[in-house]
Amino acid sequence: MENTPKKQIAILGSTGSIGTQALEVIAANGSLFDVYALTANNNVDLLIDQARKYNPEMVAIGNENYYNQLKEALSDLPIKVFAGNDSIAQVAEMHPIDIVLTAMVGYSGLKPTMNAIKAGKKIALANKETLVVAGELICDLAAQFNSAIIPVDSEHSAIFQCLAGEGNNPVEKLILTASGGPFRTKSLHELELVTSAQALKHPNWEMGAKITVDSASLINKGFEIIEAKWLFGVSPDQIQVVIHPQSIIHSMVQFDDGSIKAQLGMPDMKLPIQYAFTYPDRIKSNFPRFDFDLCSQFTFEKPDLERFRNLGLAYYAMEQGGNMPCILNAANEVLVAEFLKDKIGFLQMSDIIEDVFAKAIFVAKPSYEDYVITDSLVRILTKELIK
Ligand code: MN
To answer: Would residue 66 count as lying in a domain?
Structure first.
């Protein structure tokens, strides 16, 4: 690998949890990777620091109000500066880029990911909402433009690693593990009173605020079953969720002969990020190693769909198909933002999603425009239902 040219990497969402860890992976492997582009939504200060340190060809900030600040702070460097969401989508298709890491939050990842796929880029997919909202569209585009999608989500990376070398060997089921989050042992009554501050204390993983709340409500696992359906082409009844509080087994694949393969490791996103960058190769890392002497048991539980209704609602959305997962995602983005401000209770999030499902307009075969309309209408509907 020493003589091959460095892979040019664009990080969309470089100031978030995945983005900053991706930059650490790149910094540790300077002979293999180059940062070509960095984009952020609002965190202009960190984007400036990152640009000065990693010297990309270009940077883009979604919020146009920060354009002048960004431009001035980098004026002594030959870095091209752009602003606005359209510019983020355009950065993703720049010719020299080999890999686009999609690490932005939520629905905003859809358009840039589509652009990157159409430009034939390899996608290191961390923005799971893209596949939740528009999985069919994305998979069709990826096939049409011969763009590989490598999962960064730890569960999907685990499954991807278990499938490596298996050719077309038939898969019986995918087993996604879930930590169970900070409220795993709370009763339904206790869940009525939990706060956003409690939800933000995840036992095993350090992540951004939105995904941490999503993990607490198990909707993150719900999104991940939908993500898995599209990434691996399995049917809903072939995806099982198992609570594994230690978060060491990152997920498993059961083959037609009954054999189960698992991928294990410390809960550290740098490993799946690095694997997505180096795939199909593995390279040496100094990430913390799992120590069997320190962990005496692995335990497993069945998820409780009465206390964590969001997971059941996600199964429902996946089975309905069409724009139902898009409806789920839009409602959830609004609800999580309100829960983070402690404007609504934890269990209310599921109540309102059920309400939204009953009232939103279902489209069986949505186009890209249908997704755009669904997303904006469901946000309005959800805000009305919160009042
Ligand atoms: Mn995950």
So the answer is: yes
